[in-house]
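User: I'm curious whether this sequence folds into something compact or stays loose and floppy. Could you predict its structure so I can see for myself?
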Amino acid sequence: TLLRIEGGSLEEQTRDQAPKGTSISVRNLFFNTPARRQFMKSDQTEYRHIADTVQRYILSHPNVHFTFISDGSAVYDIPAEPLPRRVKNLFGDKMASSLIEVNEETDVLTISGFIGRPNFAKKSRGDQYLFVNGRYITSRYLNHAIVKTYENMIEAGEYPMYIIFLNVNPREVDVNVHPSKLEVKFSNEKNIYTILST
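Assistant: Here's the prediction. I'll summarize afterward.
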């Protein structure tokens, strides 16, 4: 199906022959919303936000082939592949080789993914990814639990890399906390903190 939306109005909905998959093309976003447009940052900053969002989807869905094109150039063209190979494709051999695989199953949740070795800690939090049931989230509380495990192994002001996937009973998670859907609430958050910090 081809959907074409302009200015919030559905202009076209037709059957179309196309390869299997979904293609999304965005042009002149907020062209008819001057109030929103005036709060946009530089093109480079806005591009970085978009690229970060795409990268999170690439990480959370390794079974999906992603192609990300910006201004006619392919930024990512990553086939469906196992997660370790996807991490290597996204971050490079050196970073991938610094990661330790994590797998833990408890009565409360299942944890999988990768944590970085202490000697590869960075001065910024940029490479920290936390997913709950496949959804990227931000949580200072759970981030603190993960970083706490590095106590006495990294310097103050350094941050470890991690790519952590939490699988939790959906009934134990509220994803409707914030419009951006980046924040979630757990009914047993203290238990999850304790598990992550040990």
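Summary: The mean pLDDT is 91. Residues 44 and 50 are 10 Å apart (CA to CA).
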